[in-house]
Amino acid sequence: MKKLTALLLLAVLTANCRAVLNYPSALGPRYAGAPASTPAAHAGAHALRVVTYNVQWGKYIDRAINVLKTRAPLLDADIVVLQEMDADGTRRIADALGMSWVYYPAAVHPKLGHDFGNAVLSRWPIVADEKLMLPHIGGLRHAQRIATAVTVRIGTVKVRVYSAHLGTPSDIRPAKRRDQAQTILADAAAYPLVIIAGDMNSHGIGKEFVAGGFLWPTEHNHFTTAFFNWDHVFLKGFTAPAPDGRFTGIVRDTLGTSDHDPVWAVAQLP
């Protein structure tokens, strides 16, 4: 009887943990769009408001749009990075916010039946982009992780932006998650102004980015999930924020959109 119970339990777990269908090419699939007009000049901008939001499985897009358009200070965002998205959900959010966007899926999720990946939305023109393949296949669903990387032009200033979603603790060991972070850092080394943001599935991984010369404004935020502070923003080449100023925060009232709360931070241009 015990053996039968164990076999049944194994069958249930296996059924619930089917492998994803990865997109192994660094070339795509790729989806992008832009509003009819975007700011063409620096327009006196001295700071960028960055938002990272894991919209759980891209399920509640209308709710996510409501949150991003009505919750201060999210509604003032210049850069929004999204995780767990598909192309249609990304397009709908970008259109609602009047932003340019680039989206790369990492895989087709077996439970969802649609694409699962990362996006970058920008108030400013996106002039280059790529899909950055991260090392190590996850153990649970054999998922390939990626970062979506774009270059945003703000007048004559170019900023490299990454939307990252690192492997979960149930998928990979901490050392492998550090390898994923180092892959992003290696790509970012060529750019003087960099924003790396997303669901890091870790708090301690922030030390890797600090060691790589990044500011970590979200280090001391409270939990962004039920129990952990896993959603972060890292900045390179930007001016350190004033210690008495409000330069980061979390929005809690999200209408049940996700198991992650959106996080914002201010990137002060030098």
Overview of the molecule:
It is a single chain. By secondary structure, the chain is α+β, with helices and mostly antiparallel strands. Helices cover 21% and strands 31% of the residues. Strands 1, 2, 3, 4, 5, 6, 12 and 13 form an 8-stranded mixed beta sheet that branches. A 5-stranded mixed beta sheet has the order 7-8-9-10-11. α4 links the parallel β9 and β10.
List the helices and strands in order.
Answer: HEEEHEHEEEEEHEHEEE
> What's the gyration radius in Å?
18 Å
Number of helical regions: 5
Major sheet attributes: 8 strands, mixed
How many angstroms separate the termini?
68 Å
What are the main properties of this structure?
270 residues; alpha+beta; 8-stranded mixed beta sheet; 5-stranded mixed beta sheet; globular; disordered N terminus
Question: Can you summarize this structure?
Answer:
21% of the residues lie in helices and 31% in strands. With 270 residues, the chain is an alpha+beta fold.
What is the topology?
Blueprint: H1 2-16, E1 21-22, E2 31-33, E3 47-54, H2 61-70, E4 79-85, H3 87-97, E5 100-108, E6 115-122, E7 126-133, E8 146-154, E9 157-165, H4 174-188, E10 194-199, H5 206-211, E11 231-236, E12 248-250, E13 263-268
Parallel strand pairs: 3-4, 9-10
Antiparallel strand pairs: 1-5, 2-5, 3-13, 4-6, 5-6, 7-8, 8-9, 10-11, 12-13
